[in-house]
Design goal:
single chain; mainly alpha; 3 helices; golgi apparatus; transmembrane; Target SNARE coiled-coil domain protein; coiled coil; endoplasmic reticulum
Length: about 120
């Protein structure tokens, strides 16, 4: 096997015995181990096509998910606006009708306290 790292290995040794030493002909030797380079290049070309297809699928999925997130964000913004509007309406209605529920809670607590007081006084007798 010829040394492919040297000029003689790549171009071939020039034969002076044949009398062509000054003819300028170049002999090229191809290593039989690397003879299937075309097949490897074709295989790499197919792999590049597959990677390009995968990249295009990823790009399509990314665009779909970005659109979905944009729509979801718009929906959340609308829901927040609706919730804020409803809270404002509830606050206005409580303000107009008054907050009697606080008086009812205080009255209920006083009645419970009074009942417990009477029960403890009655149980000591």
């Amino acid at each position: 096997m010829a040394n492919l790292r040297s000029r003689e290995g790549l171009l071939g040794a020039r034969s002076s015995a044949a009398g062509n030493s000054n003819s300028g002909e170049i002999q090229l030797r191809i290593d039989p181990m690397h003879a299937d380079l075309d097949e490897e290049i074709t295989g790499l070309h197919h792999k590049i096509k597959q990677l390009k297809g995968v990249a295009l699928e990823i790009e399509g999925e990314a665009k779909f998910q970005n659109d979905f997130l944009s729509k979801l964000q718009l929906t959340v913004i609308k829901a927040q606006a609706g919730l804020k509007n409803n809270m404002r309406r509830m606050n206005n209605s409580i303000f107009r009708q008054g907050s009697n529920h606080l008086y009812h809670v205080i009255l209920f607590a006083l009645v419970c306290f009074f009942l417990v007081y009477l029960w403890t006084k009655h149980s000591r007798r």
